[in-house]
UniProtKB/TrEMBL annotation:
Cross-referenced CDD domains: DEXQc_UvrD, SF1_C_UvrD
Domain UvrD-like helicase ATP-binding: 32-312
The organism of origin for this protein: Thermohalobaculum xanthum
Swiss-Prot/TrEMBL keywords: ATP-binding, DNA-binding, Helicase, Hydrolase, Isomerase, Nucleotide-binding
GO molecular function terms noted in the UniProt entry: 3'-5' DNA helicase activity; ATP binding; DNA binding; hydrolase activity
Protein name stated in the entry: DNA 3'-5' helicase
Lineage of the organism: Bacteria, Pseudomonadati, Pseudomonadota, Alphaproteobacteria, Rhodobacterales
Annotated GO biological process: recombinational repair
SUPFAM superfamilies the UniProt entry points to: P-loop containing nucleoside triphosphate hydrolases (SSF52540)
Enzyme class: isomerase
Family to which this protein belongs: Belongs to the helicase family. UvrD subfamily.
Pfam families reported in the protein's UniProt record: UvrD-helicase, UvrD_C
Amino acid sequence: MTNAHPSEIDDFDAWESRPLSERARPQPPYLPGLNEAQREAVELLDGPVLVLAGAGTGKTRVLTTRLAHLINQQRAFPSQILAVTFTNKAAREMKERVAQLLGNAVEGMPWLGTFHSICVKILRRHAELVELKPNFTILDSDDQLRLIRQLLDAEGVDDKRWPARMFAAQLDRWKNRAQGPGQVPADETGFGEGRGVEFYRMYQERLRTLNAVDFGDLLLHVVTIFQHHPDVLADYQRRFRYILVDEYQDTNVAQYLWLRLLAAQHRNICCVGDDDQSIYGWRGAEVGNILRFERDFPSAQVIRLEQNYRSTPHILAAASGVIAANRERLGKTLWTDADAGERVRLIGHWDGEEEARWIGEEIEALARGTRGHDALSLDEIAILVRASFQMRAFEDRFLAIGLPYRVIGGPRFYERMEIRDAMAYFRIVVSPDDGLAFERIVNTPKRGLGDKAIQRLNQLARERGTNLLEAARIAAGGGEGITRKGASALGQLVGQIDRWAEMLRGTEVSHVELAEIILDESGYTAMWQADRSAEAPGRLENLKELVQALEEFENLQGFLEHVSLVMDNERDDAGAKVSIMTLHGAKGLEFPAVFLPGWEDGLFPSQRSMDENGVKGLEEERRLAYVGLTRARRHLTISFAANRHIYGRWQSSLPSRFIDELPPETVEVLTPPGLYGGGYGAAAAQEMTGSTLERAAAEASTYNSPGWKRMAERRASAGAGQGRGAHSPVVNATASARFETGTRVFHQKFGYGRITGIEGDKLSIAFEKAGEKKVVASYVTPAENQGGSEDIPF
DNA sequence: GGCCAATTGGTTTTT
DNA sequence: CCAATTGGCC
């Protein structure tokens, strides 16, 4: 079974038989400059190697240099190296940097990519082995959930008792462990009164009918093929002479099996990772994979990268102090020869709003350079939170003071409704079997075909053993239990799809033009043009962007595959801005100044993690703390609030237990000692009551640290009225007095608009760009004075 | 079949 | 508090 690239293999054999002297290479220019451990990690090319790369130790550099070295030393053709990453971003970066190292001497590496993209490539070649057609579609989790809903509904499962989401999660767990319906452990079939495996089978069957796979299938199917078809496996084993894996601590069982199968012949597998940065256990990652590496690959060499080039000793000490409390770890000691730098700052606040206000002011100080350092660009500052709801407090505050920020990891472009709709139109034109796509668009725009009609179509498709599109064609003829109006609408739609499919095959129009025609003729664009809601203009804008994005692809098919695998959302909006993101989102990044707010027990570590996963959960939270701490280069500030406004109710909490784990000598405490009983952290605060907290806060101005003084001054100057936040009655009164209906105003986020109504502290404003919105009065300034209430010098 | 009001539940996220 | 989804009503 030599299905793939025989020419490449022949080339290699020819090359391998050449005398050694011809293969010799001069000392490569990229080796000097690496430290000893890094160099070892680059040069140990043969056999299994585990590189334990602590945060900031030059992991990416090692990985890319090793790749370049393999090619430079002619150990293998680029096409014989398998290099896997988790994200497209990482893959892209690696490609670029290898090309840079080798001076563009290498034509692309076909097997450098994410687990999923590489699996797609393999699976398309052998699709028939798992009863798929090579042009199968890849469903995202949204489609997946809809399919599950349909299935469970058809089986009469009560969604209240057995929610579709729950089954989706279960499916994920199974697929993450590469367990097909036949390999599900007996004690995990409980879903739907013991019908879990039955549903799993049916779900897989439906996917097959749709000629579709979900994300989990990409790995599961390939592993299944490898296990059942030794000839196919042998082919790939032979091809991949060298294997490199990034972020090994994040691999799940399926990925692990996949790697082990592929590495079995040459055994040249190099995994790079950091067990201390494993933070994706909740989505199937197995820290165990990295902890067990030496057992899995006997004679493996383990290299530790421990010299940190990113952070100051104080920051490293803080991170080490926290992570040392974890039991399950391989153990590394980061060190640096950088200057001590300033200590990690720790500060407690009365509530979340005060925390946001304080951080806002600190950021302004950093940006002005008034903290005794060179001024920082806002791009060099980040706020890392545990959960995204924490972001709002910062957004609110920064909007109010006009501090530019960017939220990283919001809703992705390709996840927007209008984009998914448009894509569904493209999908049904490209692949007539894609019933989910058809279902999505059949009544968008409204064609009078609701749930009833769709149910009937599905039934019809089942009866006739055909796909939804064909069923619709039949139903359009009438007499199939669809109303006359519905049948005629169906007939029109099917006719349109046929015509578009015809155009797709022909050469008359380009795929970009076709896309425009589809969106136009279907009435989809018109639907949004007719929509008077605030979002409509933005959606039309997005559709334009979508069509524009198409231009970079050869055809619709290629584009669709790109989108299903590369859900990137890198919008590079210009201007220096503070980054606000989750700790998860910050992995792999670094910033000169980092703020870590919300270090309260229950929030961080998250109560839910601890409740659901006990010590394991707590340890993962602790690794998350470690990731957060090690993002900082020079300035690091941890903070917590005694009270927080969560989901509309006040909640008070104790400082995070992780705070107790910070080595005291690396920390500068800005919180008055009274506020949390002298020491800091949960243990010290255990016995504090609300009233003692209040009294301590009142005594705060007597505290003597410079940081605290600064804060006290600020607090005093802020004035008592605003001390409890921008939403206080005082502010409201001023605000409503300042505005009246019809006033033209400016809002930091939504731009210009006219006030259409006032309710208490909230204004209804018809924005010129963003449409009608309700906005808190204090975030809006009269249009004549758009500079805002404070002058910010940037 | 479509629209509005009430209800509910709300870490972390890539592919 | 707020969004997303569901249930009831036209």
